[in-house]
Amino acid sequence: MNRGVALKLGGFTGALLLAFGGAFALGGSVDPVADAAPTAAPHGEASAPHSEPEPTGAAHGEGHSETGGGTGQPPGLAISEAGYTLVPAQSSFAAAGPTNFRFKITGPDGKPLTSYQVTHEKDLHLIVVRRDLAGFKHVHPARAADGTWSIPFDFTAGGTWRVFADFAPAALGRTITLGSDITVAGPFKPVPLPRATASTNVEGYDVTLAGNPVAGRESELTFTVKRNGATVTDLEPYLGAFGHLVSLRSGDLAYLHNHPTQEAVAGSKGGPEIKFGTTFPTDGIYRLYLDFKHGGVVRTAEFTVTIGASGNHPVPLPTDATTPHGH
Ligand SMILES: [Cu+2]
């Protein structure tokens, strides 16, 4: 009997090792450009020049810190921070399907917040994803005079969903991201997190990710967009940049701010590269969601990225780490 248990465990461990072995693929196959060139020097690629050093905080209209307001934790893990609270009108739905999702942000005075500082061209960004990291949407609700936000939203399946409100209260002077769980009744089939790969396809667009991110310091991520084998050089500005990137940590759905390193004004064209400065707080597995706009349509390219040798085993690195983690 004991032997039977041991055999079962052995098989399970083997399957896990296989899964994580596959997840290492990205680390070995991407261009180690971020490590090789942390300074302002161009990378010698045959690409359009990009502005480095990166723009100041004014470029994205925010001066936030990377952690959740002195908690030492990444953003998105709390429903309340710095006196501001995310209050869904309804935190449970009786069935999957289209609904009108409504919520408020209450301020330190307990009243609905109505005074926001614009970030990435909006007063508030709403990210909705199921807890298994499937079903990602980045949307922009409308605010009524009384401070209530609302947006038509389709909870496409049952399960526990996570909503993130990413905004800067005018009185606070920095961005905060609050998160709340929303439960939706109905059948739920967890979607396994896809393996880490350096490229993905979304609606006919091939998107490749290059970079060598390490935990605890800012790394550059470069996405390259192609269509039918040809580089796309007429990306359209979306939210003040040629792309908008959200990263979520698998396991707890910590939310990462990602700063585009280039601004994009109306009428300008970008691509095929889109660059971001990103600081992953710890080793672990992350799901990256890149929104880009082409032909008037916003599409989302998704990537799984493992940081560190362990992947599934978060090991905080010193923030002044100067050598790559590993062996
Ligand atoms: Cu947004």
Reading the helices and strands in chain order gives HHHEEEEEEEEEEEEEEEEEEEEE
- Beta-strand content: 35-45%
How many structural units, i.e. domains? Answer: 2
CATH topology of the largest domain: Immunoglobulin-like
**What is the H level of CATH, i.e. the homologous superfamily of the largest domain?**
Macroglobulin (MG2) domain
Indicate the low-confidence ranges by residue numbers.
1-67, 311-327
How does this model look, in words?
Residues 36-48 have a biased composition (Low complexity). Residues 1-25 form the signal peptide. Keywords: Signal. The protein is mostly beta strands and 327 residues long. The protein folds into 2 domains: 26-41 and 193-307, Macroglobulin (MG2) domain (Immunoglobulin-like, Sandwich); 75-184, Immunoglobulin-like (Sandwich). It contains 3 helices and 21 strands. The protein has helices at 2-23, 25-29, 33-36; strands at 80-81, 84-88, 92-93, 97-106, 116-117, 124-130, 137-139, 142-143, 149-155, 159-169, 176-184, 199-202, 205-210, 219-227, 230-231, 244-249, 255-256, 259-260, 273-278, 284-294, 297-307. Strands 3, 5, 6, 7, 10 and 11 form a 6-stranded mixed β-sheet that branches. Strands 12, 13, 14, 15, 18 and 19 form a 6-stranded antiparallel β-sheet that branches. Strands 1-2-4-9-8 form a 5-stranded antiparallel β-sheet, with no helix packed on it. It is globular. The chain starts with a helix and ends in a 20-residue tail after the last strand. Copper (II) ion binds next to loops.
